């Protein structure tokens, strides 16, 4: 059940999020059904939700804060797969569904408040709560579109084009996250991103923001 430790803003925030994605507002009954199984969690900055080798046990909805999912190569270099921000979800979907050890880490970039659901709980909600079934269909559609766009960018776009698209889609990330995380997300070296930014900022092609 939703915990008082997160305050009454938790159900309100989740209701607002769901309503923004559904054709009609979520009912009180559906919201209550979701609230009976979600588990609140507060994660301090740099705290881990998942470490490589563990089975990912939860889908996490971010009420407040920011997380990242990433892997490490054999030299210790990070490859950032995704961010998880307010009104978004983060999980290793494959590990959570198949109950296999994850290759990824998920940690908090900021102090974060989360709502957690296991895969079994999520499937039960999809079967019994109409709003949750509709929400998951919409999220799956958006995930497929985003995955296709990112794959296309990785295959067909230059580093400059990927960064320009990133700035357009996520302008708030520029002042929120450090340079090296954005470079990792884009699949380029920090030095390459610095050169791209310097070139584009000189031409006033992109907004100036701190990436230190």
From TrEMBL:
Pfam families: cNMP_binding
Taxonomy, superkingdom: Bacteria
InterPro entries (alphabetical): cNMP-bd_dom (IPR000595), cNMP-bd_dom_sf (IPR018490), RmlC-like_jellyroll (IPR014710)
Residues covered by the Cyclic nucleotide-binding domain: 22-141
Protein's name according to its UniProt entry: Crp/Fnr family transcriptional regulator
Source species: Hymenobacter fodinae
